């Protein structure tokens, strides 16, 4: 069975993530230690004890999610002898996917995502930007509304193509609110997201400028494993820093990434890491028959499911 290994992004974190994994497999502590040394973040304390307000700070969330996701991957790969050659991650999860694919060292990834989180937080003053999930509206309708409500100095853009039933916009707070008000009159359901900045929008340009030299100076190892970058949604084996650079202020094309995996003949989709966000999105994107979607959030259940 051809498999896509998937890695979650910000929003999948919760206090207690990784606890069962570390208890069942103490050797996973080595992965946490390496990431802690590289990022300077108390990853195990934040993951296991919180507090939640501290864990959800972008500069903390990103190295914590990266580490837990990579730990799930390493343990399950080693325990089951998994031979997976195709990888994708949602936003931040692309860094986890690169580590799992052997294209990026964990220590460098942990350093980069710590820097990325801080740069994103600095890019936009508090209260200036926001994000909202839009349900029950087509991509074409929403793209048209984004153009309509981007006037003068205000802008709003499609930030995440999560599934046909869930799209996410980001931009100036006033523009996001105005778009949501009109979308609601057209039958859409809009939910403002509890995030600290308008990620994956042009308002992240300062973060992109900061991260670009750090990313272009990063070594990506050559191997035959496949990555589906968020920004293009096209399968590649030779990875370039530009994918991560452009992702910062560009959209996450998750619908298109899963459709690309489907076109490649992949039939099993495994979410390595905490939560079940990607499992839910993939089930909405793919046909109901002919595909298997697995979450590893419960390590015991994941071991059983992946053995079969």
Question: Can you give a write-up of this model?
Answer:
The chain has 308 residues and is α/β, with parallel strands linked by helices. It has 2 domains: 3-123 and 203-307, Malonyl-Coenzyme A Acyl Carrier Protein, domain 2 (3-Layer(aba) Sandwich), CATH 3.40.366.10; 129-193, Alpha-Beta Plaits (2-Layer Sandwich). The chain contains 14 helices and 9 strands. The protein has helices at residues 19-24, 29-39, 43-49, 52-55, 58-80, 93-100, 106-123, 139-148, 173-185, 205-216, 241-248, 254-263, 277-285, 299-307; strands at 3-7, 86-89, 129-135, 156-163, 166-172, 189-192, 226-227, 268-271, 292-295. It has a 5-stranded parallel sheet with strand order 7-2-1-8-9, sandwiched between helices. A 4-stranded antiparallel sheet has the order 4-5-3-6. The radius of gyration is 19 Å and the shape is globular.
Concise overview:
With 308 residues, this protein is of the alpha/beta class. It has helices spanning 19-24, 29-39, 43-49, 52-55, 58-80, 93-100, 106-123, 139-148, 173-185, 205-216, 241-248, 254-263, 277-285, 299-307; strands at residues 3-7, 86-89, 129-135, 156-163, 166-172, 189-192, 226-227, 268-271, 292-295. The strands form two sheets. The chain has a five-stranded parallel β-sheet with strand order 7-2-1-8-9, sandwiched between helices.
Give the secondary structure arrangement, pairings included:
Elements: E1 3-7, H1 19-24, H2 29-39, H3 43-49, H4 52-55, H5 58-80, E2 86-89, H6 93-100, H7 106-123, E3 129-135, H8 139-148, E4 156-163, E5 166-172, H9 173-185, E6 189-192, H10 205-216, E7 226-227, H11 241-248, H12 254-263, E8 268-271, H13 277-285, E9 292-295, H14 299-307
Parallel strand pairs: 1-2, 1-8, 2-7, 8-9
Antiparallel strand pairs: 3-5, 3-6, 4-5
